[in-house]
Amino acid sequence: MANKRNATVLVGLSLAAVAVIAVWKPTVLIYGIQAAGLYASIAIPMGLILGIVHIVNLAHGEFMMLASYATYMLCSATGMDPFVAMVPTAAVTALFGFVIYRLTIRQALKAPELNQLILTFGIAIAMTQAVNLIYTSQTRKLSFEYVSASIDIGELSFGIFNFVFVLVAILMVVGLRIFLTRTTTGKAALAVGQNPKGAAIVGIDVDRTYGLVFALASALVGMMGALFITRSSIFPGVGSPFTMKSFCLVAMAGIGNIPGILGASILLGISENFLKAFRGLRGWADIVFFVLIITVILGRSIRGKKA
Amino acid sequence: MKKALVILVFITMAVSVFAMGDKEGTAAAGSAPATIKIGATWPLGDITGKQGSMAAQQAVDEINAAGGINGHKLELIVIDDELKADKGAAAIEKLVTVDQVDVIIGGMASGVALGQIPAMKKYGKVVVATGAASYKVEEALGADANWYFHLHPWDYNQGQSYADGWAAIQAKYPTIKVGRIFLAYEEGAFGKASFDSSKVLFGNAYTFDGAPFKSAAFGGGDYAAVLDAAKQYKPDLFLWAGYDADALPMLEQAKAMKFNPGIYLGAPPGWPADFGKSPLANNVMLYGMWAPAVNDISPASKKFYTGFVAKYGVEPATYFAPLSYSAVYIVADAIKRAGTTETAALIKALEATSYASPLGQTITFSPANIIKHQGIRNQKILQWQNGRQEVIWPFESATSKPVYPFPAW
């Protein structure tokens, strides 16, 4: 009863805060939600791997970077739009992810977690250096007219393209929910994620399921890599900051809580943009990220202890 | 006894033959002209440093193909400093003690140069530096570093040249008005130093303000807040100091927010590949030292550019390529005039340098605020026009007239 009342108060306060921000500075909400869409759509595939395969893939951002380069080359050579190119890119990254899983991750599944971290960290470095050798460190960016699409409301003009990432994040959450709860493979993946030994006893091929999940997550991050080139420049190190951000969002949401990643991203996006609205606090936007994570994880730990 | 005598004679002959052989070898080595070794450090993982080393090698090959210097061939030994101060310092140690180079050239980042200075001071080898813009490097060198020849302008030289440039442009083109300047700067050391120095330089003559942003190079890339602040400020000149990764995304967001300053100017160390192909790039202004357009006014630039493209099959991406190429030629010319690589004579010859560089200007050395040998003192103001960087100022190097105002979206 008390919990329900606390939750109601929290939701009420949050809505009131959002209403105040919307009246005071609507751009905080607009840009905050847009940033949240980008963060969530990159973090969700990592959450899927962590929730089911139980591996922290430190090469997550580099998978996206590779997909971005593949899309860039495809679009440059053929004139294809990234929204079309994301289909073949997703297919290629799925295959690539599956191969990487079979050749490396699979061998380290039973190894200590530190070894797994070192392995994926090594993969990340290898990918970055390979791209640097092939394409150099020079940044690349394709220009698309629709990226600058905007809306005028009174005197306020703002870009609307980045709402695409919000849509992508929502589609990922809904799509994964349907996959994990309504399909046989998805249900098997969920079972493997919850209890791999139990799943194996009832006849689920755990190794195959891990491979499939890794390939699916690679396809999703590959798709995001394709869309990423619409808004951002690409260079060999472009992916690594997103690995850290994604991991923190997954940790904030709780392992296996994919809709929670979207919630955590919205909280982060709005908080960052709220601070950016104050002249003297713009440099603190990065710190709010870690403050939120520490607060949420500490809060969860304290609640867990009490329970 | 007889047998012992035969053995003794044999040993004596054998020793004589080996001794002669050795003597002949020494003579041969002594008579062959020694190679002049130029040591260099650049960050080879970065395109700027990589192309700097490529251009330096191009210059070495050109000089060797033309007969070398006073009959001596040049050899370039490059070590990757990995943009790390400790690696840069170790590279200087190795170049001097192991490779035994005659001269040191190169460098890019100020942080690396700061790490290298103690080793440079220890050995006192002649250094012709292509990088390091921070005044802190000059302070660390001190007034006694007469072996240090700095080609790149110091940060205060650059700032002063921008102020001079805008004053000159407004005087020549009265329709161009610069009253309010807004600087969007990346929140790292590079951007903050740009803001501090610009505030000092522009603060008196212009109304000046600025705001930081997180560069895409470090995981940022959302410019809405900084562009919003700039839009509210209504600047005549919007200047951003960040990295090449910020160039196009910032323009796209500026367009989405309908932010239209009279002058839109970027000051990244380099530009993205194919930036000029974007329709948004047209009429964006920039600061730099060189662009392929300089070929139109400088035969040295044309020679460098043609040679670089022929040798490597790519265009030079930043001015560090012609700058590094210039460093080799300056060193070669000084050694030729000095007739030796001995430090004192070489310093004297370098002080008399007058080199018509591919940067479109003649390089000479004169005292800076602290050091005695400063080469280039100004950057150029350029503008992207129809996919090409055109030089707008200095007027003597201009390849085109400025297009003003920056067109409305």
Order of SSEs of chain A, N→C?
Answer: HHHHHEEHHHHHHH
* Number of structural domains of chain B: 2
Q: Give the fraction of residues assigned to helices of chain A.
A: over 70%
Give the count of structural domains of chain A.
1
Order of helices and strands of chain B: HEHEHEHEHEHEHEHEHEEHHHEEEE
CATH class of the largest domain in chain B: Alpha Beta
Structural class of chain A: mainly alpha
Unreliable stretches covering 5 or more consecutive residues of chain B: 14-31
> How is the largest sheet of chain A built, in terms of strand order?
1-2
Which pair of protein chains has the largest interface, and what are the residue counts?
A: A-B, 40 and 44 residues
What CATH calls the topology of chain A is ABC transporter involved in vitamin B12 uptake, BtuC
Count of runs of 4 or more consecutive helical residues of chain A:
12
Task: Output the keywords.
heterodimer, A: about 300 residues, mainly alpha, ABC transporter involved in vitamin B12 uptake, BtuC, two-stranded antiparallel ribbon, 12 helices, globular, B: about 400 residues, alpha/beta, Rossmann fold
Describe it for me?
The complex is a heterodimer of chains A (307) and B (409). Chain A has 307 residues and is mainly α. Chain A is 76% helix and 3% strand. Chain A contains 12 helices and 2 strands. In chain A, a hairpin with a 2-residue loop joins β1 and β2 (156-159). Chain A is globular. The mean pLDDT of chain A is 91. With 409 residues, chain B is an alpha/beta fold. Chain B folds into 2 domains: 36-153 and 298-378, Response regulator (Rossmann fold, 3-Layer(aba) Sandwich), CATH 3.40.50.2300; 157-288 and 381-397, Response regulator (Rossmann fold, 3-Layer(aba) Sandwich). Helix content of chain B is 43%, strand content 17%. Chain B is built from 12 helices and 14 strands. In chain B, β1, α2 and β2 form a beta-alpha-beta unit. In chain B, α2 (47-65) packs across α10 (299-312), α3 packs parallel to α4 and α11 packs across α12 (343-351). Chain B is globular and about 65 Å long. The termini of chain B are far apart. Chains A and B meet through α2, β2 and α10 of A and β7, α8 and α9 of B.
